[in-house]
Description:
- This protein has nine helices and no strands.
- The chain has 230 residues and is mainly alpha-helical.
- It folds into two domains: 68 residues, no CATH class; 154 residues, no CATH class.
- It is elongated and about 95 Å long.
- The protein starts with a helix and ends in a 12-residue tail after the last helix.
Amino acid sequence: MTALETWLARATRQLSADSAAQVRAEIAQHFESSREDALASGVAGDEADRAAIAALGDPKSANCQYREVLLTRSEARLLRSSACEAKFFSATPLRKRLLILVPAAAATCAAAAYGLATITAPFAIPFTASASANATASLIARIAIIAAILTAVVFALPLLPIYTPGRARVYRAAKWLTVLVICIVVCERNLANSSWLLLNCFSFIAWIEAKRMSLRRKIPAANWPKHLYL
Length: 230
């Protein structure tokens, strides 16, 4: 490898293929310009190459700067996978209707379970099978209403016209506030003891959201794919 190739390999580490190609094209121009200036000033060929490489600066520092503004490999993979998922779920009107039916079905189950528990509660005798059935129905109603809220936020609301940066910020704030409130309600007094479970469940989601925040910062809003608004 030449000195320039070694510099480029370090400077483009962890960048996506398109980002690396962009950096290579720009650096090649800078390198040739610096080399020509050095040759014009009377410097020998090898010395001119070294001077041009030195003018490019430290490749590690350059890599950090590039990763702040250009897409990395992991970000590019997330962008492609999210685009495939969004295309699958919204490819046909039937799939869109199914996304709306999921929270509707969960809400119906919640209403049915809650109604069963409410109607039969006055006739339940403590420590009997009917009392146990009421407790089970209440638990099912609680789980179903939580599922209805979560699926409505995740599946149904993105079908609304929220594809502007301002509306997207409101949607994301409502989404994470809903998730936080539901976690508190589910865990109740055991929130401190259940914190490790919540961290395990949401650590990957938080990583995905951090990547999406980075993508929104790097990509102009006019070029955002629909799933980045979410």
